[in-house]
Amino acid sequence: MIQTERPARGAFRILLVSPVDRALLGKDFYFRFPHLSLPTLAAYTPAGATVEIVDEKFRDIPDGKGYDLVGITAMTPLAPRAYRVADDFRRQGVPVIMGGYHPTVLPDEALEHADSVCIGEAETLWPAIVNDAMAGRLQTRYRADGFPCLENRPRPRRDLLRIPRAKRFEHINLYFLQTTRGCPFRCSFCAVTSVLGGKLRHRPVSEVEAEIESLGIRRLQRGQKRDRFHDIVFFTDDNIVGHRSYAKDLLRMVAAFNVKWVGQASTNVADDAEILALLRDSGCMGLAVGFETLSQKNIRDVGKGVNRTPEYLERIRKIHAYGIGLAGNFIFGFDHDDPTTFADVVGFVDAARLDGFYYSLLTPYPGTPLYEQMRQEGRLLERDWSLYDTDHVVYRPRLMDAETLMRGYRWAWRRSLTYRSILTRLLGSRNQLIFFGPMNYGMRRTILAHREGGRP
């Protein structure tokens, strides 16, 4: 327990920090969006305390003057930056608590830089943490007892986010909403189940509806066409259609609002015609889908049985037929990948007319089965967490060397971001061009700038 004395004065001041660095999707990313985690956490702050949020993508982190507690969230590639921020505040005498994915899976490491660590989802713990800090008895560890229910939750404190609006996007209102947590697939490389669990939890549809209304999004009037590009919602769920009956009720509700939206789904979304029709009718512009690899052997190894690679093209065709765009996510470096994999994936992205894509390098995050496998096999090459950003090779590949993997990965990015590839994919499919056109342009700007001026 950390004993502190606090001078008698006004409200207890808390600073919540989301650090960032110059990684691929960091401070220099063309499209910069805030995380939902800190506004969500801030909503649970008890009376007697005030909260300020700083997302380093948009604002510099202030010094510790006037703050009574600093909370820092950290994903693995941002852990080194988070630790530097924490060390700086502690040198100024401000108590620091760390949470998020990385401190949850490596709490002892985090405690080398923080006074306290929150292990697991923080919402149910936050009131006790703040009350303990206000009383000068901050505990060293706070551990979530299971996974919290998502019912009767306060709305995120979006008012605490100070985000400058780019003039080119002033007409667009972008909102982030979450309806479910957890994932039942348990892929060996994925960090989601390590913190959020392997069972899907969902919010009552009526509460999601009330939150949408609170954002000022209007309902569609009889005969009214949905606005092309004004109110946009990004559903942060890992799989918006993971629970089919819930998803259908949710989509019917969303269809009543004058909103366009994007989200994430699994490849088997194509197998349910009713879901596809509801996605279209509810204003879905596109879905990010984890295809991961073209090798069924890789799929078998990582345990993502929902993906059936021989069915990819047909599933994509079905989704496109409903006017829904697709951004395909692919990972390079699985054990059955070899130097021919890069051209195969690039050719598939073009042939499938994928509206968007994202390439990453296989990354064994601590806390995942893949990390433990790589550790036992002696294949880990790096312990510098800043390199665990899916943009660096941090382990020894099986069928090629690290240099070949990195070279092929960068070639694939360049090849799929040529204007020829972009035009082939977008003009060929014509699915939600107004959304995926800027997405491809932004990715091209970011990737080329990162490759030319970023870290090698």
State which percent range the strand residues make up: 15-25%
Terminal Cα span: 43 Å
Radius of gyration: 22 Å
CATH topology of the largest domain: pyruvate-formate lyase- activating enzyme
Uncertain spans, ≥5 residues at pLDDT below 50? 4-8
Quick recap:
By secondary structure, this protein is an alpha/beta fold. It is built from 16 helices and 16 strands. A 6-stranded parallel beta sheet has the order 3-2-4-5-6-8, sandwiched between helices. It has a 6-stranded parallel beta sheet with strand order 9-12-13-14-15-16.
Explain the overall architecture.
With 456 residues, this protein is of the alpha/beta class. The chain folds into 2 domains: 2-143, Cobalamin-binding domain (Rossmann fold), CATH 3.40.50; 165-453, tm_1862 like domain (pyruvate-formate lyase- activating enzyme). 34% of the residues lie in helices and 17% in strands. It contains 16 helices and 16 strands. It has helices spanning 37-42, 79-91, 101-105, 107-110, 126-134, 192-196, 205-214, 244-254, 273-281, 296-302, 312-321, 341-351, 369-376, 402-416, 419-429, 433-453; strands at residues 2-3, 12-18, 49-55, 69-73, 96-99, 116-119, 137-138, 141-143, 173-177, 180-181, 201-202, 231-235, 260-265, 284-292, 325-332, 356-361. Strands 3-2-4-5-6-8 form a 6-stranded parallel sheet, with helices on both faces. A 6-stranded parallel sheet has the order 9-12-13-14-15-16. Helix 12 (341-351) links the parallel strand 15 (325-332) and strand 16 (356-361). The longest helix is centred in the last third of the chain and has 21 residues, at 433-453. The protein is globular. The two termini are 43 Å apart. 42% of the residues are buried. The model is unreliable at 4-8 (pLDDT under 50).
